[in-house]
Each structure stands twice: as structure tokens, then as C-alpha cells.
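Please, structure for the following, as C-alpha cells.
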Amino acid sequence: MSSKISTFTKCTDPKPNGQVDWTYVLESIKSDKFKDLIIKAREIKESKDNGAYVEFKKTLPVVTFGGIFPYRKNDSIQAPTGFLIPDMDHVEDVSRVMDLLQRDENIWFAFVSPSGCGIKAGVRAKGIKNDQDHKKFFAAVQRYLEKTYQIKIDDACKDISRLTFLSYDPDAWVNPDACFFDIEYWSKEPDQGLKVDVKDYIGNSSGKEKYSKKVLQSCCEKIRQSQIGTMHSTRLRMSKLIGGYLQYIPEEDVYSALEQAVTDSGTKDFASSMKTIRDGLEYGKKSPIDLDAVFAQRQPEEQSPFKLLDIQQMLEIDIPEREFVVDPVIPQQGLIMVYGPRGIAKTWFVLSLAYGIASGGLLFGGWKAPRPRKAIVIDGEMPARTMKERLTSIVAGAESEPPDPSFLQILTPDLQNRPMPNLAQLNSQKEISSLIKDYEIIIVDNLACLARHGRENDSESWLPVQSWLLELRRTGKTVILVHHAGKGGAQRGTSSREDILDTVISLRKPSDHQPSEGARVEVHLDKSRGVFGEKANPFELTLRTDHDGAHWLVRSIDDVDLDRVMSLKADGLSIREISQETGLTRSKVHRLLKKGCAA
């Protein structure tokens, strides 16, 4: 395990200018070496000119505490140190947190960041050999700091080549008794120590006091059993937990019990350990526990929220007929995907579909919206000006219109004062669910922009989105998802997306398409529950836009193929040559020629 780290003149340098011992860097931060630079940086920060601060910060010296690198790239690590530097930005009370960290056996050093508003700390672990090890280490430290101090750290710290800006902090410190971080222990959810069954105390006149004393006993036992590397965090978490119960039991009794538990744990620094206990109790007092609410929520016998039907009830229950939003391809409460390669007019197709659903009536290829329905389009990337131009053209060319303008709503990124939602995250799903509650049809254009869930080929990453879609279906919504095709022509990413879908519509570029033709696209049904025969046949759409608006010209694929075959035959090509030119089988070319000649 190396003690050397790479140094860089500034953050934009790809290669280091040298290497030093990590302890030397801490001594430099404590000295006046960077004092003038950091004072100037903080003056710019206080002026509220964030742009100027960011630019000035780029000139500050930086190091890679993760180890020695010939150039700054995760896979170029030569000699790892085992260090991870969690960035604790925007700390509410820097001095209070620094005081706590100095008593933490997992913290090797800490100093105030260049902005003066955050803290950079050093945590060290054994067995860190590469970036993959470092990322596991990061996840464990992230959980540790959040559970112990309620502090969230920057996700960028997970990279082993992460740069650390040097600072000026005369009070920076190094912990001589620091221990190596237990990654395995903090890779799982730590036990909070509360193992008390409320049913023994509900209805008891002195139940609240007895329940609180049971919690105290459990917390004390956890403190006694804590091991090196978890002692400080356990004392802080357990004292904070019992601090919420001080309205039910005397504080002096609590303090005495915790003091005895700390003594029994074999602490090396009793005074520092008890200061941690006092800090934890003060935190807990700020969030008092309401035992009336706890008892009310946790009854001795809970009934299942699920409803079971026996076979007779299932057969007799009155369930309304499932209607079509667009007959025959989009059923009510359906989950639909429209996908195709970039630049194939997916958004034109989907906006036309949305307007047709909101208006009711005929769409393309014999598709029909039986009645108008309220729809909302959530767009992730199109400029608002382009969206307006396309909708203007679609409305001008339409044969019918919605009963009311509110039947079609548009959510477009340019007109928001915040980033667009990430529908792979629970908080964004809740925000959007409240927005769409009055709309039956939800169109998400597109998944790459609006459902950012990590690796597209990872089926587990898709599960949060899938759960949300199934919940929307349960509440009566129909959802149309727009997605990109991959290089092979299939929808991009994991095929498990299609498992819950009712209909998958593939938009494909015709083999003889020329750019001068504009938008011409084949519409195929890759998956369509209950659609058979001629209704399932593919067809071709050609978009025409003029002063009368946008219009889709519809032709069957067979008619398109017939025209191509007859044209090539007229040019003197043989059946074999026509087959090679069109990609059709020779037997199909022969049938089409026979049909064309008979017409």
C-alpha cells in the first residue's frame, strides 16, 4: 500500500507534475503555502459570482489521494494508497461536524474545503487495488456517513482517479490512531439496535416509559458490543436514537446508563467518547419520538391489504369490457412502445398519434381512435420552437380537433425552470404521477432522456420503471413509450422491457429510401396482443407537409413492393436481379410479377 500520491498543477492537466507523501500534503494545507490562493477563492465565492469562482478554482493545485497515476484515468492506477476522499459539501455547521470527525476512528484526516463551506476527509481501507474495489469502498463510506452524520457525499468521489483540490486550513488534522475502514460491515444496512415489540406496551398506563427503557437497554447493548471501526458511529447513532425518548424517561438515568455502556465497551478515550454521547443526545432531542403515533401505526395484528377472490367470485365479478384507445393496436390500460432508429420521424409519428387520440377519428393505416381521450406528451429533448412548428403543421392538416384544448397537454424541457424528471427515480415518478392524474394517455418521448436508469442492457436497472408503469396501468392509464433502435434494428437495451408491453410498434426505414424523399417509414407490429390477420400487416407512411399542414400518405407494404418490382422489371432486370435489389425472395418477386401482369 503506497503512501505516495500524484500532484497536478491544475485540474485540467492530464498528466501529473510529480508525487509526494500524503502527509506532506496535509502539512502544506496547514501551512501558509496555499493561503493567498484560497483567501482569494473564498472572496470570489462570497461575491456570489459562481462562474468566476468555478474558473478560478480550475487554477488551484490538485492531487489524486487514490494513489500514483502516470496520467489521470481510472484504469491507469500504478500504486494505490487505499484512500477515499468523501466531499462533504454545503455542511450546515462546519466546526460542529469537524469536531465530530476528530473523534471518529475511521477518519484519518480532515480539512475545510477551498470554498470554506464544506469538508474533505480521508478514509482508508485495505485491499483497494483498482477502480472496482474503490467503487465498492465508496458505496460503503457513503452509507456510513449518511447513517452516522446524515451527510450526503458527492457521487463523483467513487472514481479512484478523483482529483482533490488543495486548501488552506491551519486547523487541519491527522488522526494518529485511525483504523482501516470495514467495507464489508458497512456494505450492508447497519442494525439500529431497536428490538422491542410494541404490542407488549399498548394500552399500558406506564407503557411509554417501559417501552423507552427497553429501547435504552437495546442501545446500551449495541454500544457494549461495538468493535473498533464502528465504536464512534455506534455511540453517535444509539445516543441520537435514545435522545428522541427523553420526554418519557429521566435524562440523568439515560446518561448514566450510556456512561456505563461506554465504560464496558473498553474505550481508549473516555472523555471523547462521552462527548460523542452528549452530541448524540442533543441531536435526538431535536427529533422527539411520538409513541402515540408509533403505537397507533403498529397494531398487534395487521390485516393483509390484498384482496382475494375464489373461483366463483372471479367468474361472477362484473368487469367492464376493455376498450381500444386506438383500434386495433392500443388497448385501454395498455403499455405500448414505439421504437425506431434516429431521424426516422418518430416524434412526427407520435405527435400525430397523440393529436389523433385527443381528437378521435381515423389515424393511419386504418387505425381509429373511437373517441377523444385526454392525453399528455412528456418530451425529453425537442426544442420548444421545433415542437410548436410540428404541432402547428399537424393541427392544420388534421380532419378533426379535440373537444377542448386541455385534451392534449405538452411538457417540454425548454419551458421548465428545472431539469426534466428521471422516471427511473421514485421522487420523479411521484412528481409526474401527481401531474398526470387527470390524463388517461401518457406519452413518454423518449426513454433515453426521461428514464435514465444506468446500463440499458441491465434488466434489473429497468425494474423501477417497470414497477411504475404497472402501477399506472392499475390506475387505468395507457402509456406509450418512445425509444431508439440499436445498431441491429431491435429496440435498444434489455429485451425485458417488452415483457409487460401489450403492443410494440417498430418504425423502419425502407430499403430503397432516398434522403430527398423526406420522411418515409414502414410501420410494423413486433408484438400485438389480440391483433391478427390483415390488421397485423405492416404498412408504409410518407409524410407530406405544405401550406395545408402535415398529411400522412398510407400504402400497404405489398403495394409498395409491387410498384418496385414492376418498375425494376420494366428496366429489364431478371427475377434474380430484382430479388437482389429489393431483398425480397425470388418466390415473392415471381408472385408480385404475376399479380402485376394480371392487373
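The mean pLDDT is 88. The first strand starts at residue 4 and ends at 8.
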